[in-house]
């Protein structure tokens, strides 16, 4: 298998990751992982404060 690299594009790559995670959720009925908030914020603007590990304690 060969690996090809190209520049990241929001329209293609970010949406493909989201679709993959949605399909994975439908198959497993559990959340696996989500795109980091920082990527969504770069695309869609800030949607809240940055996650802090202390919030889980």
Describe what you observe in this structure.
- The chain has a domain at 12-44.
- The protein is extended, with a radius of gyration of 15 Å.
- The protein is built from two helices and no strands.
- With 57 residues, it is mostly helical.
- The relative contact order is 0.11.
Shape: extended
What's the SSE pattern?
HH
Strand proportion, as a percent range, falls in: under 5%
Radius of gyration: 15 Å
Largest sheet: none
- The N- to C-terminal Cα distance equals 44 Å
Number of helices: 2
Oligomeric assembly: single chain
Structural class by helix and strand composition: mainly alpha
Helicity, as a percent range: 40-55%
Task: Kindly state the number of beta strands.
Answer: 0
Q: Enumerate the spans where pLDDT stays under 50 for 5 or more consecutive residues.
A: none
Overall pLDDT confidence: 71
Strands, helices and their partners?
Layout lengths: L9 H19 L8 H8 L13
